[in-house]
């Protein structure tokens, strides 16, 4: 919508009835151009038709899918920056002697087990979110470019299923990762000069941008799971089972551990899919009470799947760079034991947790 109308001869015409009435002041964002716009308050604003009439919603979803994917990538990016800063700080900050008595003097905090746990949590969450996003992006490319129409349709269905997961999962975990970044810094995390707090503030808007996490979750439940009777979701679970089999054939301790947790995660997701499909029409309040846990369960299980694939690839190429590929395997093992292991709890919340969600009346809140 133009600020000024244009005359037929191309000259600048009258002021259009579109006005900026206020600039929004946002948490952590000091140069945001977003504003409250008022249209038609003084007689009527004149807009410009973009594309064909009555196809606006169709056009919007093309834009929104791209925007949602991009916001998910933004969550990964700010998480990566927070992790890099936290690692550098942990390598320099000297505090306390080792708990195992291996040194008599204070050491840098990266030697302390709980700091390692926080850094490994940050590292693994970033790696899994990036992997899931890249797999989704590859499916999008295949959906547009593959010569086989059946493959294009299958890839498009997979990509569309993954978009709310990439957006919702990657942005939700960015809050956890950037918060851990502040925690690694300790009190220095609250000192503005370190910059750690800025990552946390920047991340907080991301689960809201381009549709809140609940909107992504409702889309995942309604349009992506219920509409096709869970066909795409079950197809993904079948692919996950294939990765489990490959991990089992390897036989190493870390691979066996990841296989076990991935199998539990897949079973939890299959149970959640069955519950959603069976109850969406008969008891929608019960299903949508667990929509965000369902999205997070998808995110966690898909992440475990991709790290399972990554550790198999890392093992095959280990000789090229042992340190790099061993770190990949260890990161996958950590994620399986510390985060993928949460899948069964999310399943229980989805399948059996609706009653307490809906128990209180409005007056009781």
Walkthrough of the structure:
This protein is mainly alpha-helical. The chain folds into three domains: 4-39, no CATH class; 56-211, Butyryl-CoA Dehydrogenase, subunit A, domain 3 (Up-down Bundle); 214-352. It contains twelve helices and four strands, in the order ββββαααααααααααα. The protein has helices at 56-92, 113-145, 149-185, 196-204, 213-226, 231-250, 253-279, 284-289, 291-316, 322-338, 343-352, 354-357; strands at residues 4-6, 12-15, 18-23, 35-39. The strands form two sheets. The chain has a two-stranded antiparallel sheet. The longest helix has 37 residues, at 56-92. The chain is globular and about 80 Å long. The mean pLDDT is 95.
List descriptors:
single chain, 365 residues, mainly alpha, Butyryl-CoA Dehydrogenase, subunit A, domain 3, 3 domains, two-stranded antiparallel ribbon, two-stranded antiparallel sheet, 12 helices, globular
């Amino acid at each position: 919508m133009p600020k000024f109308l244009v005359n037929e001869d191309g000259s600048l015409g009258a002021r259009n009835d579109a006005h900026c009435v206020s600039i929004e002041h946002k948490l952590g964002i000091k140069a945001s151009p977003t504003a409250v716009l008022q249209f038609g308050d003084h007689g009527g604003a004149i807009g410009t038709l973009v594309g064909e009439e009555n196809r606006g919603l169709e056009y919007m979803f093309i834009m929104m899918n791209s925007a949602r994917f991009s916001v998910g990538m933004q969550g990964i990016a700010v998480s990566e920056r927070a992790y890099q800063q936290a690692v550098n700080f942990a390598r320099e900050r000297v505090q306390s002697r080792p708990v195992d008595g291996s040194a008599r003097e204070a050491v840098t905090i990266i030697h302390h087990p709980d700091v390692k746990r926080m850094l490994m949590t940050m590292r693994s969450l970033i790696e899994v979110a990036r992997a899931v996003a890249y797999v989704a992006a590859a499916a999008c490319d295949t959906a547009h470019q593959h010569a086989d129409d059946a493959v294009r349709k299958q890839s498009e269905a997979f990509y569309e299923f993954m978009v709310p997961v990439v957006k919702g999962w990657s942005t939700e975990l960015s809050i956890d990762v950037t918060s851990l970044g502040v925690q690694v810094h300790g009190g220095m995390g609250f000192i503005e000069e370190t910059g750690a707090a800025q990552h946390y503030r920047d991340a907080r808007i991301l689960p809201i941008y381009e549709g809140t996490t609940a909107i992504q979750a409702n889309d995942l439940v309604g349009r992506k799971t219920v509409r096709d009777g869970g066909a795409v979701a079950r197809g993904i679970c079948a692919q996950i089972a294939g990765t489990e089999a490959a991990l089992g054939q390897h036989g190493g301790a870390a691979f066996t551990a990841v296989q076990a947790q991935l199998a539990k995660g897949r079973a939890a997701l299959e149970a959640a899919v069955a519950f959603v499909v069976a109850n969406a029409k008969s008891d929608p309040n019960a299903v949508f009470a667990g929509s965000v846990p369902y999205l997070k369960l998808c995110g966690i299980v898909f992440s475990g799947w991709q790290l399972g694939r990554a550790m198999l690839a890392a093992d095959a190429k280990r000789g090229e760079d042992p340190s790099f590929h061993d770190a990949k395997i260890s990161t996958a093992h950590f994620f399986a034991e510390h985060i993928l292991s949460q899948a069964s709890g999310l399943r229980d919340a989805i399948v059996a947790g609706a009653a307490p969600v809906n128990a209180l009346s409005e007056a009781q809140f």
